[in-house]
Amino acid sequence: MNVFPANISYLHEVVTAGPIAVNYFYILSGFIMAIAYYKPQEKSNFNKWKYWLARFARIYPVYLLALLLIVVAKYKTLLDAPLTLPLHLSMLQAWIPGYPITLNTPGWSLSVEAFFYLCFPFLLFSIYKHGTQRLVIFTVILWLITQVLLLSLLNSDEYLPKSLLHDFIYYNPLMHFNSFIAGFLTGVFFKNNKFPILKNNTIWLFLSIVLIITLLASRPSLENIIGIKLAFTNGLIAPAFLLFIVLLSQEKGLITNIFNNKWLILLGEASFSLYILQKPLHGIYDKLIASKIPLATELHFYIFLIVLITLSILSYKYLETPMRKIINNLLDQDSKKS
Q1: Are 153 and 169 in contact (CB under 8 A)?
Q2: I need a surface site. Which of 82, 123, 207, 286 has the fewest CB within 10 A?
Q3: pLDDT for position 38
Q4: Residues 1, 301: Cα–Cα separation, whole Å
Q5: Are 13 and 216 in contact (CB under 8 A)?
Q6: Distance CA 266, CA 280 (A)
Q7: Which of 11, 26, 214 is nearest to 117 (CA)?
Q8: What is the mean pLDDT of residues 91-106?
């Protein structure tokens, strides 16, 4: 929807960079996984089954709720494609072209993330056994292959929007794996104190934000200059994101104090519900409110945004958190019995 601030021409590319923000999320996810689980002195204590269940408890309850809301709205068409619902229930939809965005559109990114979660224990074990050198080399090669393949396919005569090739380029987990591993390795190096703390870190952090905004805003101009289509969705600007993440992690000044605000923390915790519930809740809002109350489209957008944020906070407090505790408690009980 082209509403403020997306309707400002020089901000449009930045404000509407949702798919690129998903790529940032993959990089950040890898970084956070390393921060949370990489413990060189406790190599033998990592339990991959406990990790997988903890990840399941974190994302699946709200993911399932959003999916069921969509299913209720689209149940008449599900029989036309019998594989659609099973793939979405098993979080495999992004792995198979033709299915990534057939039901709850944002769910494709969780399908990709599920692939990362499956791979994470093996990445961790590789670091423990072989150190970082092999994985660094693998990641660089994978990043180069991904970018060459992406740009070649995106600019080929066979490429069409909403085609199977489009689905492979933009949604397949293998096309995003380089971003997750890059984030993971950066987290490992961070925990090993490999990054020096720069003087005037806040200034460098601000400059990294300016760099990212400049890259996003200048993409159309870059495409015109070099004569090919570009995509920042698969790790092409990962170095800029990694620089920002490291500098933000080292920040101890004003920006840290701002982010420590309790309301911003709450919004951050509710962001997953906001992301995954946005489509089904928008459908409900359109049917029950927007279609019956004649208001300007822009006003409906902002009203829905308030409703979405409110319901996302409630989802975090009364669905996400309780269900995560229940599932993790069941795991702890099973562990004690065994």
Answers
A1: yes
A2: 82
A3: 94
A4: 8
A5: yes
A6: 22
A7: 26
A8: 95
pTM over the 0.90 mark: yes
Cα–Cα distance measured from residue 94 to residue 87, given in angstroms and rounded to the nearest whole number: 9
CA-nearest of 55, 5, 43 to 328 is 55
The reported pLDDT for the residue numbered 40 is 79
Q: CB within 8 A of 94, min separation 6: which ones?
A: 100, 108, 109, 111, 112, 115, 171, 172, 173
CA–CA gap between residue 143 and residue 147 (Å, rounded):
6
49-61 burial, b at 16+ Cβ within 10 Å, e below that, comes to: eebebbbbbbbbb
When pLDDT is averaged across residues 46-53 and rounded to a whole number, the result is 91
Cβ atoms < 10 Å from Cβ of 112: 28
Q: How far is CA 191 from CA 40, 195, 222, in A?
A: 10, 9, 36
Token readout for 119 is 């791979």
Provide the residue type at 70 as one letter.
I
Which structure tokens are listed for 313? Answer: 């906070």
Percent of the chain with pLDDT over 70: 92
Specify the pLDDT at position 297. 87
Tell me the Cα Rg of the chain: 21
